[in-house]
Every structure is written in structure tokens, then in C-alpha cells.
Amino acid sequence: MRKYSFLCLLLVWLYPACQESPKKPFIRTAKDTLPARSNIDPSIPGNFSTQRSLHFDSSHIHQFLKEYPQFNDFAGDIRQFYSNRQFAYAWFDSLGIIEQAGNLLNRVSNIGDEGVTKKVLYLGAFDTLVTDEQLKTSDRNTPPSVDANAELMLTAQYFYYAKHVWQGLSEKETKALDWFLPRKKIEQDELLDSLLRSPTDSFLADEPLYYQYYKLKDQLKDYRTIASNGGWPTIKADKKKYQLGDTGVAIRQIRQYLFVAGDLPTDNGSSRFDSSLAQGMKSFQRRLGMKEDAVAGPAVLKEMNVPVRQRIEQIMINMERCRWVPAKPAGEYLAINIPDYKLRLYNKDSVLWSMNVVVGQAIHKTVIFYGEMKYVVFSPYWNIPPGILKNEVLPGIRRDPNYLTRHRMEKVGNTYRQKPGPGNSLGQVKFLFPNSYNIYLHDTPSKSLFGRESRAFSHGCIRLAEPKKLAEYLLRNDPSWTSARITQAMNAGKEQYVTLQQPMPVYIGYFTAFVTSDGKLNFRQDVYNRDGRLAKTMMQ
């Protein structure tokens, strides 16, 4: 039985230091560190129905696939599913077709609400088969009937729905998009068993999807309503920026935009930039990750003039990414969203705290992957990456005999490293999690970059705005590591490795649309131009 899989989430940034070889060896592994998810109760016997008196001949599957050949992608799933249950009917019992069949028909018929662009296969035949059986079942004067075609159509449509709504693109396709988070395994046939075994009102309710998916789905509905009502106005600016006290036609358009987009509670039609408009402007800037100065400058106006259809596509793209991540993350974990330039500490779905980060430049993209943080390194050495050694350090040494002394560097074997202490490119602490990309989190002496809106400056690794805060949290369960001791270790000038008692999961992901805890839809710049590639793949 083919096992459909689901991915894991979140984001990260890199620095020239990221290419260095770590002091302790990293283990390269393709191991899937995420357990399979199954909501099957092992105490319940059978597959999903206690009915075993109604069976069909296995030859019906061949005939069904011959009549509906577009379901051949699921032939193996269908055959294995019914072989496991000795070809007993799943969607019929002694009274006729079960009520869950209508729920599935409704979900499949409205698959567009899930942000799926794929056309439903044989929808007309599906509707006819299920509706006819429902009418027969409701007619108490007619003996209940069973229909092998209706039975197989329901199961085939379930697998179709599960593939496109719960799984999304295949692992091969996501890797081609440079998404290397491990896939979470789901036993899809067992999930079908469980769903059909559940009470009618909960059928398809326990779906294996990350909570952000549902929030984006609600926003998709709202934005499609905005589009059907004509969208928002195009702002025709006659000056570079608008701020409190200004007047003009463009300000009336800005006000209308903010009202339609949900940043203003009302639109009074005024062409004056007043305090209420300033608050709406700050709300918009907050949702776009911009400086909240209530000034509508060129960058703000550019974002406001993004067509609603483009925002709808952006929502759908990120709903697709949500299909790949864990449905119910367990425990605490760190998540880095590259376009948001943020690291967040989560406990399950709740954000405990966050901090700004700097991520890789477009030419040195931060990799999307998963790892487990195992070490905190105080006062670290910086092992000079080969590229920087060749292009910067060696030419500097040839020009200046005192280059190594001035930069606090030393030669070790055939390479060079920078000593711990002031000016070290990794700052006072780094955080290691074994991975084949040589990516880690670290401090930096360059603090000014954290105040910028766009923070893609590194060569790959992720710089932290508040590294001590993370160190204190990771070592909080070790009473010997007090805040004072951590400060001392960071300033000791002598490298010290500390092994964490419990590894901390780290997800590095890429989401350009997401909903915050206040229910606000956020958009971010597609810093690595990944949205367009994903959109093309989704449309294939």
C-alpha cells in the first residue's frame, strides 16, 4: 500500500561562517525523524465497518478502472484496501449507503474551497451514483441495495481527495523545489478506516493538516469574496508618500483599500489623512512585516497595488506548503520562517516567544530543512570557509603581514580560524544541530542589521538578535547554568561546548502568507522567488 506522506515546517538564515567545518563531527543522515501519525484505536477490531456480510467480486475493480481510467494512479491503493477487508463493502451496510458517503461527495464537490486547482475526476458520475443510492436508502418501501460501482467510486474519490488536499505535491516534487523538511508518514488506508468508523458528524473532521491550513482556508474564502465584489482600488499616487495631515484623491483610495482589506473598521470617504487612517496604515504595515510608521511611501503603495487575485494565489501557495508539515507538532520546537526573518519558540501550536533573525542572501539561500539542536558553544572559534579564505583572507595576508594579528586569526594545519573574543564573526555563542548543510544559529557582532525590514544578508547560517535569550532557555533545566554563568561563558574568550540534556527540534521553513494569533492575515516578500516555481508546479 502506498504511504502518503506529509511534511514539517519552518525557516532559517545563514552567515559566511556557515561553511566552516564544525569542531565536532556532524552526522549526515537521511533518517525521517518524525513518527507516523495514526489516529486508529487498536482496540477496535476490523478495518472500519463491522459489516462483513456484503461482498463484491474482485473483478469489479478491474472493470471499474477500465470504465474510469483516470483513477489508475490509485489502482494499487484500491486493491490493497479491499484485499485487506476481503472485498467487503465499506460504504454500504444492511440499510444501504451510509451517511458518510454524502459528506465525502460534498467535500469532493467543493474541493476548490481547499485551494486545490485540480479538476475533480468524474464528478458527474460520482454525484449520480451517490445520489441514486441515497434515494434508494431513504425509500423505506424499497429493499436496500448495494452497488459495486458506487462503492468503488467513493473509495477512489477518497484517495483522490486525500492526495490533493492532505498530501499535496509528492516528495519528489517538493525536493525539486528545495524543500528538504522530512515527510511525515500517514497510513492513508488506516485513516480512511478510522474516519468511516467515526460518528457521522465527525467524518473528515480529524484531518491530518496543520492548523495554519484552516486559518488560510478561511482567508481564502474572504479574499475570494473581495474579488467577487470587485476587489480593492488601484491607488494612483501623485506624490512619493502620504502621511498624517495630507489630503488628496489618493488618500481616499488608500482609505478604501484599508477598509476592504480589513485594516479599517469603516470607510467615511474622507480624503484627509487623519488619525484613524494612520491606525489603519499601521495595521497594514504590521501585517506586511513593514516598519509601523503610518507613512504610505513607495514600498507601502507597491504592496497595496498588488491585485487581489495575486494575493489569492499567494494564500493558495502557502496552503499547499501547509499540507507538507506536521499536523499536530508535539512538545517544544524552534521554527524559523525565512521570509518573515523570525525565529519562534513553540509549544505545540502556541508561540512562547520570538526574535528577529538574519537569513541568507538570495545568492546564498538558507536551506529549508529539519534538525535537532544538540550543542551550545560559548566563545566559539570561527573556522574560515574555503571561499572566504581564498577570496578575502589569503589576499589580505599577502597585502598586510599583520593581517592575521589585526583580525585575531591563526593558522591551524592547512586552514585558518578566527579566535574567540571581540570581533569574532560568530559573536559570543553558536547553536549546533547536526545536518548535512553545515547550517547553525549564532550570535553576530553586526547588530544593526536586525532593525531592517529586509534581513537577507548572510552566506547561509542564521544570526540571532538575542542569542543569550536562546541560550538561557535551552539550559533552563540545568541549575548550574545561571544567567551570570552564561554571560561569563560568552565573554570567556575560551571555546566551551555544552551538550543539551534534551535535543531541541528546529524547523526551517518558507511561508509568505500566514495568520497570526490575532487572526490577521500576513504577507511577506518572496525573498527567494519560490512562490512562482511552486505555483507553476501546482498548475501542472
Task: Tell me briefly what this model is.
This protein has 540 residues and is an alpha+beta fold.
The gyration radius over C-alpha positions equals 28 Å
CATH architecture of the largest domain: Beta Barrel
Report the helical percentage: 25-40%
> What name goes with the CATH superfamily of the largest domain?
L,D-transpeptidase catalytic domain-like
Largest sheet: 8 strands, mixed, barrel
Q: Major sheet: order of its strands?
A: 6-7-8-16-14-13-9-17
Proportion of residues in β-strands: 15-25%
CATH class placement of the largest domain = Mainly Beta
**Would you tell me which CATH topology of the largest domain applies?**
L,D-transpeptidase catalytic domain-like
Number of helices: 17
Mean pLDDT: 85
Structural class: alpha+beta
- List low-pLDDT spans: 1-17, 19-49, 199-203
The general outline is: globular
**Whole-number total of structural domains:** 3
Number of E-type strands: 19
Distance between the termini: 25 Å
